[in-house]
Amino acid sequence: MSRDKILDAAVRVFSRSGYHRSSMDEIALEAGVAKGTLYYHFPSKALMFQALITEGMRMITGRIKSAINQDRTLQEQIELVIRLNVDLFLEYSELAHIFFNEISNGIEEDVLLVVRNERDAYMQFIADILIEAGMAQEDGRMAASGVLTMLNGLCGYYLRHPGEAKREQINRLLYAAVTTGLLQGQA
Amino acid sequence: MSRDKILDAAVRVFSRSGYHRSSMDEIALEAGVAKGTLYYHFPSKALMFQALITEGMRMITGRIKSAINQDRTLQEQIELVIRLNVDLFLEYSELAHIFFNEISNGIEEDVLLVVRNERDAYMQFIADILIEAGMAQEDGRMAASGVLTMLNGLCGYYLRHPGEAKREQINRLLYAAVTTGLLQGQA
Amino acid sequence: MSRDKILDAAVRVFSRSGYHRSSMDEIALEAGVAKGTLYYHFPSKALMFQALITEGMRMITGRIKSAINQDRTLQEQIELVIRLNVDLFLEYSELAHIFFNEISNGIEEDVLLVVRNERDAYMQFIADILIEAGMAQEDGRMAASGVLTMLNGLCGYYLRHPGEAKREQINRLLYAAVTTGLLQGQA
Amino acid sequence: MSRDKILDAAVRVFSRSGYHRSSMDEIALEAGVAKGTLYYHFPSKALMFQALITEGMRMITGRIKSAINQDRTLQEQIELVIRLNVDLFLEYSELAHIFFNEISNGIEEDVLLVVRNERDAYMQFIADILIEAGMAQEDGRMAASGVLTMLNGLCGYYLRHPGEAKREQINRLLYAAVTTGLLQGQA
DNA sequence: GATGAATGAGCCTTCATTCAT
DNA sequence: CATGAATGAAGGCTCATTCAT
């Protein structure tokens, strides 16, 4: 259906150029529909973006939860969550950048609120794992915030220095930051 | 002078609305000068942004370097660097936010390059300390990138949840991420 | 359609104020459409200008060529071409004025090239007749250039001094310049 | 003095870029004075241009008249005037273009009027020679207009096709147009 | 459901001009 | 005489949005 073609195209375009540099023209072109069609399915650019984030997160958290919902040790869970997050981040890098760096993009305030809530829910989801592993409530939420932005930074570095860094490093360093400290996170 | 008024206003406006949503009109208004005056002092919006970053970083790195240049153990150095960074980040949160986040979306390529170099130089500066502490070269650079964005995320959380989080937590979690792992970073 | 309204208005405005003093606002106003509509139909001011020249010339050369394509002596051909050119110039004086004068000052290089080619093609068309009449190749091209700008000047004079000059004089002087010299071109 | 430096620079700049593309900044730079100095000596850009044309024409017509004011045959006079005009045109090509192509440049109406008068005086000066050579009054004025725009066209062609055309051709073709007709103007 | 022509507010930038020194 | 910092009107262009079909 048109709606899905549009949403798929929008993810690609937003992810390639960021929210502001992505134009409705470009999205329509990429989706292979007329520009008016975008407005048939979504009331505005901002609300299209919101739909994309909301539905995308539903899918993503679903995928992660179902992957976790099997008997695993805490350590395995942490490793798995990290790996899945890194994979997702690298696949949808610009979108993830937007998702984790709120203010940077002057989206309409109400839409921003929805995106933030979505993000906070996701962070709580990560925090819960850390808390279950023994962290204090407060520390857990804050640490989750830190871990996810660190993931943001490591992936960013990886993408900006192709060839230099290896993908496996990202996972290793993140795991180290959580469990042993970065200074021990090496052979 | 006008130039300083403009730069001050630009930091506020850019960090409030992000690069793209900030208009030259808004900056001129905030600075209390005519729009033409912006172009008397800076050739373009992008180059104004570049000047703001370059001059801001010169001040910040200068302050950190002069604070470190004394005999200390590595551990003390790490603690100190973290504390200074957190202090600076919270003091100049607007500038810092721009520096760490607003570096991707459609600024002219050459300006982007200058800003990135500035940031990479700073990260290398942090990386050198980690490497001296025993990290591998590659891991050091990448880890520095991760630590600084984590700092970004923790400070952001702190600022977004006033009252909930305490400032000391930021330092403690960062130090833990570097030395013992976040899960051990608690009493 | 909008596109035609715009092109018509553009000819009027450009020939009234010249390329640089003509603003897109003015053209939109004259065409009775919104400014954005101009950009829906033409990618830029320069390309609008190019379209106007190209399409205008296509019409004009078409008309002249079809009038010539019959058996005539060279002398008749020269007389005919002069008369047709004068007629066209006076009928489309605005467009002609642009075509012969407004071709130098700071339009984008590629557009300028297209317009010049269009004009050179037309001049070659005139040159061929002179060459066939016995002129050297080189001289023919250059002379055609001279004759057409002279036509420009004579018609301009005629239009600027209504009442003083008679239309027939234009034809006579031009014909004289080509065949007997201006000094002999009189009863 | 400053005034002369400015006028000299203005001729170069206007002649290089045309009236509209020449900025007061550029003129000040070329003259080696501050921008404010321009306005100390001239009330506005348009009036500076007017001064430049008026004083330039005074010099030019002076030069031509003094060259003519010696015993010569009419034929020699015509040859001489043509040569001098071509020399001047090629030396100050853009300026000459402006001078002969009025409307093209949307200069302020009053200044335009002065420039036009200056030009009409010059054309009358050329016309007088043609009339003395036997042309009718009316034809003389119109023909002078035609000859000068033809000169405009030939020089333009020469400048646009470097290498192809030779400078001597311009003189020869112009002389032919006046005396024998272009078709006879060749060996 | 879908289209695409048309819109107009808003953006970055240029530049002739002013004025206090 | 001369300066140069400051101005603000105006220009070309982009783009989210509307609406008749």
Automatic annotation (TrEMBL), chains A, B, C, D:
<keyword id="KW-0804">Transcription</keyword>
<dbReference type="GO" id="GO:0045892">
    <property type="term" value="P:negative regulation of DNA-templated transcription"/>
</dbReference>
<dbReference type="InterPro" id="IPR036271">
    <property type="entry name" value="Tet_transcr_reg_TetR-rel_C_sf"/>
</dbReference>
<protein>
    <submittedName>
        <fullName>TetR/AcrR family transcriptional regulator</fullName>
    </submittedName>
</protein>
<dbReference type="Pfam" id="PF00440">
    <property type="entry name" value="TetR_N"/>
</dbReference>
<dbReference type="GO" id="GO:0003700">
    <property type="term" value="F:DNA-binding transcription factor activity"/>
</dbReference>
<dbReference type="Pfam" id="PF17932">
    <property type="entry name" value="TetR_C_24"/>
</dbReference>
<dbReference type="InterPro" id="IPR001647">
    <property type="entry name" value="HTH_TetR"/>
</dbReference>
<feature type="DNA-binding region" description="H-T-H motif">
    <location>
        <begin position="23"/>
        <end position="42"/>
    </location>
</feature>
<keyword id="KW-0238">DNA-binding</keyword>
<feature type="domain" description="HTH tetR-type">
    <location>
        <begin position="1"/>
        <end position="60"/>
    </location>
</feature>
<dbReference type="GO" id="GO:0000976">
    <property type="term" value="F:transcription cis-regulatory region binding"/>
</dbReference>
<dbReference type="InterPro" id="IPR050109">
    <property type="entry name" value="HTH-type_TetR-like_transc_reg"/>
</dbReference>
<dbReference type="InterPro" id="IPR009057">
    <property type="entry name" value="Homeodomain-like_sf"/>
</dbReference>
<dbReference type="InterPro" id="IPR023772">
    <property type="entry name" value="DNA-bd_HTH_TetR-type_CS"/>
</dbReference>
<dbReference type="InterPro" id="IPR041490">
    <property type="entry name" value="KstR2_TetR_C"/>
</dbReference>
<keyword id="KW-0805">Transcription regulation</keyword>
